[in-house]
């Protein structure tokens, strides 16, 4: 809510909280609260910075830590504050006198005028070389494509058997089992207990990973640890381990439980879970959610089937009202009558065509017979030929004494020419009809 403040009278100084510190003067001073807010606003623009120093004070109250960091070469110190949620992620062996680097962010308290620094990360100095080597290894593995999302294997929807690699009787093991069984009571585990820190951790984890990856019943493998400081997590960045995880045929979930300086295992695993509890939730489906989903899908399917059946019934009723379905025989009878009519017409046309063809055939037969040389010979005419069938067309062809063959209507007989008969004797002899046209016929 905005408070109404009257304008100052002419010659009267404005109220202190209305004057910005840079505009203050003896006649118009700023207020302490306005100065504190200005300082706090300026400090908030600094953001987080990494500092190096020595712990000179370390007091724990209600899980929170209040202490001081001292410069290594001078007497300069700063106040630090570590909330309990952050303290759980820091090395457990931090103490007064330790040489550390910390990520801090300044905070100014306007009520008391105190300046302190909140710590979000802190680790011992001396890990620098190790972290440099890890970053080089991380860059090399990234260039080889081991971090690519395309090579990540999908997790099964409902694993029949889960392989778990974790410390014996650890909180991580309890969290995974408890949360997985809450989500799916019949879930089964095959657990390999290993050392999760120290020199034995990498060989133990490699052996457990090889055993579970070779087991055909294991559908997914979880590597779990309940967080820790960077020093204790170095084993999970070992090159042998991360390459073995990349080469495994079974999907692998990394559940180391460390947020700030996550190990390389998180990058190469098929799925990174923030905590062992998160791993159980990501790997095992919730039976109640799945039952609700099945119920929802069944209801949707029932509704769609009911709608489809109702639509088909309406279509069927509409078809039943059509005339062809009310009396199916009527259409058949109508088509039968039409077919009978077509058959009768076809039969009539065929009979008429056959009769016309018969008449035409008889006429052609009579014409052929009338034109046939045999018919001409049958009327008393003859054909004379000599010299192996040469037709006699001129009497000069057969001088006296020439042998000829005479063909008549029934057979042939031999004759001999007596010479050419005088013109007067043959003038009254009729010429057979078509004799000239048929003289070439045998």
From TrEMBL:
Residues 1-31, 415-442 are annotated as: Disordered. It comes from the Bacteria. The keyword Nuclease applies. Residues 146-366 form the Exonuclease VII large subunit C-terminal domain. InterPro entries: Exonuc_VII_L, Exonuc_VII_lsu_C, OB-fold_nuc-bd_dom. Bidirectionally degrades single-stranded DNA into large acid-insoluble oligonucleotides, which are then degraded further into small acid-soluble oligonucleotides. Belongs to the XseA family. Heterooligomer composed of large and small subunits. This is Exodeoxyribonuclease 7 large subunit. It comes from Microbacterium sediminicola.
């Amino acid at each position: 809510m905005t408070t109404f403040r009257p304008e100052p009278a002419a010659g009267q100084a404005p109220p202190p909280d209305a004057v910005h510190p840079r505009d203050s003067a003896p006649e118009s001073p700023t207020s302490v609260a306005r100065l504190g807010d200005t300082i706090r606003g300026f400090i908030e623009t600094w953001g987080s910075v990494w500092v190096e120093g020595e712990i000179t004070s370390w007091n724990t109250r209600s899980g929170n830590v209040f202490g001081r960091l001292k410069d290594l070469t001078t007497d300069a110190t700063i106040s630090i504050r570590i909330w309990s949620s952050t303290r759980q992620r820091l090395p457990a062996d931090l103490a007064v006198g330790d040489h550390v680097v910390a990520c801090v962010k300044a905070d100014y308290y306007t009520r008391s005028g105190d300046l302190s620094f909140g710590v979000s990360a802190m680790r011992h100095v001396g890990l620098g070389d190790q972290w440099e080597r890890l970053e080089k290894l991380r860059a090399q593995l990234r260039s080889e494509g081991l971090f690519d999302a395309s090579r990540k294997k999908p997790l099964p929807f409902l694993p029949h058997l889960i392989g778990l690699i974790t410390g014996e009787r650890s909180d991580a093991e309890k969290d995974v089992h408890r949360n997985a069984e809450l989500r799916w009571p019949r879930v089964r585990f095959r657990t390999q207990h290993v050392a999760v820190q120290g020199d034995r951790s990498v060989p133990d984890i490699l052996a457990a990973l090889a055993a579970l990856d070779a087991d055909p019943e294991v559908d997914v493998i979880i590597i779990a640890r309940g967080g820790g400081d960077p020093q204790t997590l170095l084993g999970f960045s070992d090159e042998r381990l991360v390459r073995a995880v990349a080469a495994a045929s079974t999907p692998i979930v990394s559940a180391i439980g460390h947020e700030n300086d996550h190990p390389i295992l998180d990058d190469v695993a098929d799925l990174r879970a923030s905590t062992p509890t998160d791993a159980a939730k990501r790997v095992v489906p919730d039976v109640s959610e799945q039952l609700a989903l099945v119920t929802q899908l069944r209801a949707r399917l029932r509704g769609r089937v009911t709608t489809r059946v109702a639509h088909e019934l309406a279509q069927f009723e509409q078809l039943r009202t059509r005339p062809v379905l009310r009396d199916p025989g009527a259409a058949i009878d109508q088509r039968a009558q039409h077919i009978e009519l077509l058959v009768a017409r076809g039969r009539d046309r065929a009979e008429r065509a056959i009769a016309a063809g018969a008449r035409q055939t008889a006429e052609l037969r009579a014409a052929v017979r009338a034109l046939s040389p045999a018919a001409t010979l049958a009327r008393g005419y003859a054909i004379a030929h000599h010299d192996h069938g040469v037709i006699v067309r001129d009497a000069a062809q057969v001088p006296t004494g020439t042998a000829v063959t005479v063909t008549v209507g029934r057979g042939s007989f031999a004759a001999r020419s007596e010479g050419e008969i005088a013109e007067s004797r043959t003038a009254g002899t009729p010429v057979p009809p078509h004799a000239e046209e048929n003289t070439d016929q045998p």
